[in-house]
Amino acid sequence: MIHLPNLITDLALILASAAVVTLIFKKLKQPLVLGYIIAGIIVGPNFTLFPSISDIESIKIWAEIGVIFLLFSLGLEFSFKKLMKIITKIWSFFLKTISIPGKILFFADKLVLTKNNNVV
Predict the structure, then answer these.
(1) Among 7, 57, 67, residue whose Cα is nearest residue 37
(2) Gyration radius from the chain CA atoms
(3) What is the pLDDT of residue 120?
(4) Chunked mean pLDDT (size 10), the chain, 120 residues
């Protein structure tokens, strides 16, 4: 039998679990990103029910590459128009949440100052 390095067997385990989770989550019509996160938890060294990775140090490189691909795929899903709509909604919400309490505090302060000025 050919002896495979731990990195290749760990990569095969990761890809096989990702493939199985992809099929399951597509069947359930759930987001694949959630499935990939669950697959990473299952294959990780802290979950002992299934076979897990053996060389943690070499897998950290694959984890960093996976995060890069994840962020890239999430970036591809957002269009610029959707992003601008979200930003305008967030900005208007931010202005409303700041301006309303600010006006209340302003008038409360004016009310307190006028009462204090009359007493003195």
Answers:
(1) 67
(2) 27
(3) 46
(4) 71 87 92 86 80 76 82 79 82 81 82 64
Contact present, 50 and 13 (Cβ < 8 Å): no
Please report, as a single letter, which amino acid is at residue 81. K
Helices (H), 29-79: 32-43, 56-77
> How many Cβ atoms from other residues are within 10 Å of residue 15's Cβ?
13
Residue 33's alpha-carbon distances to 8, 39, 69, in angstroms, are 23, 10, 11
∠ Cα 15 20 21 (to 5°):
95
Of 8, 6, 11, 32, the residue nearest 20 (C-alpha): 32
Closest by Cα among 61, 54, 19 to 39: 19
- Other Cβ atoms within 10 Å of 21 Cβ, number: 21
